[in-house]
Write a structure and sequence with these properties.
single chain, Lipocalin, eleven-stranded mixed beta sheet
Amino acid sequence: MKKILLITSILFTILSCKAQVIGTLEQFEECRKRPNRDQEGCPDLQNITYVKDTNNRLNQFVGTWKGAYGGKQYEIKLEKKVNYKEKPTDEMSWDQIIGRMLVKDSNSNIIYNSMNKTDSETHFWGYNFQGRTYDMHFVGNYDCLESGDVFIETKVANPNEMTLFYNQDKDGWLDPAKCPNFSTYGSLLPTQKMTLVKQ
């Protein structure tokens, strides 16, 4: 009887475990460059369940970075997550960067703080590389159309310096009741390149 229970439980474990199929960040970066990707997709990558940072390219961004731009002071903490799924039900996991941010105005008043948020609440997560640049997405005050892509890149001559550029989404649903000061609302992140220094 013990033998039957053991065999049954081993078979159940084998059947319930789905083998992880590993791909690389480089494969998905190459996929984005394919001329017919919008029509054909990347069928060779369809079975991948884990996109791995096999060359440790994400490590260069890990740490706390500080800088100033347009009268605002920025502190950005970037963490590498390995085999990360935002939700347990997600079919694919990624090695990616999750960001947290503290922004102060010229009088050192806090105007944005996600330092104590959970990974899924930071609304600042990485996607993939475009050459040397790592593409992230940020959502701040979505009611004021504060969302878009953030591009970060460490400098070749000094890897302790990083440039950051924010490309704010132009489309979205604006609710004037939730963003009454929209006409004077300034973007939280700079839409010009700024430099941050690793601490």
